[in-house]
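Researcher: Before we compare anything, I want clean individual predictions. No alignment, no superposition, just each chain on its own. First chain goes here; please echo the sequence and then give the structure tokens.
Model: Echoing the first chain and its structure:
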Amino acid sequence: MTIRPTERIDLRARAAPLPPALRFDQIAARDPAFRARFGRPCRLAEGGVAELYVVFNRELRVYTCLKALDAEHAAVARFRDEFALEALIAARASVSHHHTAQVISLGTVQRRDYIEMRLYDGSLHELLHGSAMDVHQVLSLLCQALDALACFHAQGFAHGDIKPANILVSGGVHAAVNDFGSATHTGPWSSPTPAIAVAGGSTQFVDHDLSNLLERVERMHRTHGVMATWSFLSPFQIRDRRPSAAGDVFAAAIIAYLALTGGAHPFQVAGIPEGDHVRLATTPMPTVTQGLLWSGRTARPRWPGAEAVVNHAMRGKLTARQMAAALRRALIEERAERDFVTKRAAEMKRPARWWSWLTWRR
């Protein structure tokens, strides 16, 4: 789903004069500098406007992931500008927190930009839709993503497109937030890697590209709007007409809602049809208990503490840092309680010994 002005954008009219449309791997195979650094790109996946490739980095001797615009959108100047902004924001975010997708390098092959990132095993999407979903694992990984979002929000940005596919997973224990194409500036930025300039005998921290980056982000989103996924769109984004930190927390709460209810989506439980922005902005979100009743999965193991956290987060009462801390506390308490119950049940099933009567008499 796209939040944009009603004016339609004609891709052909805005197309810049470029060579015939070719995939990124076809262009890269003809570039000597690219072949000297990387092996042959192998297509991994395709998204809305970009493609993912797996390549072998000859310098680092590891397999990495390349993200580049597809042939159709690479012919449009607007999408090339948006992708360049995404690359800069992703690079800054990767050095801010270890739970953001690690950016290794940024490059260009025959006017086609690409982002080289660490290669991850999968995403939360696969874990949520797996046959043996572990609620504790999904919520623990979500807490790591919330830590990264808290850092991103503190620096004055909102992600704008939090969803399971944009939370990458490595080894089932490490999560990383990815895809900053919808990121929006919401407040003052504190640069994590400022340049050092010496003036008048004193050391000052200056980021020369910061003001230009923020200006380009604001101009781009003001002109073309912001991309968003309907299933994880928040009422706050509908009302404010732009992404916000509260919208990121709301999307994270929907992911936790799906894990706790076994796949019941709050929009479906509330009866909100797809694309109905008015009802989404005015309808109260259902609780996790209502989702379990709606889906008929009341026999699922309950997580009362985590359910209360999700209900509060969906009402905009928690920040990303508060939600992560509350979820971790709830998981620790409920895991300890389940371990205690399991231990007591095992003790009750243990056969009695003949000397247990003597011990009891003493």
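Researcher: Okay. Second chain, same rules.
Model: Second chain and its structure:
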Amino acid sequence: MAFFLSLEPSIITIYMIKGIIVGIIAIGGIIQFFRPQKNQSADTAKDITTVYTVPQDVEAVLKKSCYDCHSNNTVYLWYDKIQPVRWYIEKHIKDGKAHLNFSEFASYSKKKQIHKLDEIAEVVEDDEMPLSSYTLMHRDAKLSAAQKELLISWASSLVNAADEAAENK
């Protein structure tokens, strides 16, 4: 009889573990139906390219390394279809666009535009962008030394031109 009493808690434990696993799988399945809206827009009326000359090589680097989080056009990969991964990614995109949005750049005041260009040069030079969590899954977004120099010199030249124009007024 003591043998059966000792089995009872382990059987209960097994059923509890099975119930927890089934619950987790059910919740995981249900949350797949709650997807945030995709960050994709065809509107380019306020894009940075409407305000500043962006050379093709600079634009290519920006699109590959920056636009997924800092524009209204994110290129989604296979794992972006899985919740809660998508929620995590959408939060990064929302935060990134709140800080700098290349698709809305023309709507910024001139002073804010210059400040953002100065920040671009600074964060690229300090290796703060792109985020390591982003380049972990997007290896081709990692900036080479030449790409860093390209972005820094482009952004800095626009800031310097704006400073010179302000001095000449």
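Researcher: What stands out in the second chain?
Model: Confidence is low (pLDDT under 50) at residues 1-5. Additionally, The CA atoms of residues 114 and 159 lie 6 Å apart.
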